[in-house]
Amino acid sequence: MPRAASICYIQGCTRKTVRSGRCEEHAPAIERPWSRQSVRNRARDRVWERRVRPQSLARDGFACVVCGARQQLQVDHIVPISRGGTWDLENAQTLCRTCHLEKTVRDRKS
Q: N or C: which end of the chain has fewer CB within 10 A?
């Protein structure tokens, strides 16, 4: 049975993957073995990028939950991590870039 198609792991990109979890545009030319992130943060980010982000995009119909746009999509934490939010799917929502920036401004003001 063929493997199901998946979306690019790069934030904002909804193209289908070709290798290493990324679309043709974002596929790495060279794998870099070093990273400035701790092992714990890398593991958390992998879970977000590989599980939560694609599930949130699919759940929300690959459209912004505020305005319905289908371009420049980003997955946002409903409750920011800095304010006690979690890295779970229940705390994720799909927003377009504009709505995400507006929400970030509102979050910082309150």
A: N
